Amino acid sequence: MGLPKIRLSKGRRDRRRSHLALSPLTLVPCPQCHKPRRPHHVCPSCGQYAGREVVKTD
Fold it and tell me: Which of 7, 52, 13, 12 is nearest to 32 (CA)?
């Protein structure tokens, strides 16, 4: 495995890693039950997606 010939500065290293930060989770209200859910996902509380029931819930 190769080794770097010149050590990278902390600034150059951190600029490369600037795109690795995690972004906060996006939540939108469900149109049926108004509880928060992820966009383009089935609602975990009511089981609806695009106006129809996809998953049976109690």
Answer: 52
